[in-house]
Structure prediction request, 129 residues.
Amino acid sequence: MSLSVVISNSSGLPIYEQIKEQVKASILDGGLAEGQPLPSIRQMASDLRVSVMTTTRAYSELESEGFLVTVQGKGSFAAPIDNELVREQMLRRIEDAMSAAATAARLAGVTKPELFEILSFILEGANND
Prediction:
């Protein structure tokens, strides 16, 4: 399967972060299999019409987070998926989403029991899918 990265100028995320998150998502969902090569940094920059520094930062962060392995002179490859790493990444996403929900609830005057009721309803719906 090939890697598809789309940059949005209207996104609130910096371009390197958009690249990083999309490559990471592709690795986590199996779109990029273990050992599969990624486009070179220069090729990715050219394809996306962004600077080499931008793609270098994205690849560097992906490597430091354990999603890429770079072999000097050969390129960057999808790293083996570490289930503990995947769990940590998902927990971080959940924490961020719940933090945003708690902030919105506070602003809307939603009580803790009401918030728990909403979460319970959402979880029940997810279990029925």
Summary: Residues 83-108 form the longest helix (26 residues).
